[in-house]
Structures are given as structure tokens and as C-alpha cells.
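Supplementary Data S3. Sequence and C-alpha cells for construct A.
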Amino acid sequence: MRLAPSSLRHLVWADIMSLNAIGTGQRIGDVVKMKWEHFSDEGFDFTQGKTDKPLWIPLTDRLKAHLDGLARTDGTVVTDAKGRPVSYRIVAEEIHERHPLCRHITNRQIEDLIASKLVTPEQVRAAGLQA
């Protein structure tokens, strides 16, 4: 996925989301460090930043389809137009600008809100979050 810092505003939210929460469940800091060499057809093998523990995460069908549609290069999966890694700060700012609730709500909290019928899955999706 090639991204120019100036074109991040045009990034489809699902691209980052599928690599992050949906696809791997990893933090932004780990997502921006993901390298193509960590992926196989079956899963993702890497060392998590926060815990410094090795992890193997099976690929979901959705993440596999997403990755199959991207050109594979050397280095990180998420890059700018020149092939350089995109920084945590740029990705976090874009996510927070597009989806202000992301600063304050977790996936577990979203599930709890839906379970308690305070919001519907449709409302969550309309807010740009995942149910």
C-alpha cells in the first residue's frame, strides 16, 4: 500500500482498519512496522512491540483478500509514495481526524454498547468504527 503523506486524507478507512483491528488486532505502532516478510499465505509472524513477545496471527479471509490486492515490495506494508515507512504520528492523526471517537472508545466498549442496545451496529458503522 503506497501512501503519500499528503494523500493520507484520501485513504479509505478500511485499509488501515483491516490491517489493524480487523485483520491483526494490533496497535498502530505495530501496524506501521509490519513488513511483507512477516506475512505468509496462512498468517502473520512477528514480535509485538508492547510485549516484545513473538506472535503468530492467522490471516482472516478479509485481510488475506486485502493484502492480495496490494503490490508487494521490500520493507513495510504501509509506505508513503517514495516507499518509506509511514510514521505512527501521521497514521494516528489521520485516524483521529476522521474518527474522533477512536481516541476514546475500544472495540470491547463498542461490543458492550451494542449488547446493551445503546447503539446499533449500523450506527457504529456510520460513525466509521467497526462492530
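Construct B, processed identically:
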Amino acid sequence: MVFVTSSSFFSDGSIFRYMPNACAMVPSSTLPADLAAVVEYHAR
């Protein structure tokens, strides 16, 4: 799972504790091409 957020709620990294299959947490300002690259990488 890749989480995209505009808040700093999980900035402490706790999302990785709550969702063990989380792969990344990226800001909502992430470019679509960069987000697609992250998803493609983790889909392998």
C-alpha cells in the first residue's frame, strides 16, 4: 500500500506499525509520474 496524504498525521512513521503492508507514505504534492514509479516498483 502506498499512502498519499496532505497532512502530517503519520509523519512519525506510525502508519508502518498500523499497516504492516504499507510501502510508502508520500505527500499529496508528489508528481503523478513519481507516484506511478513508486507503485510500479512495489508491484514487482
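The chain has a mean pLDDT of 82. The two ends are 13 Å apart (CA to CA).
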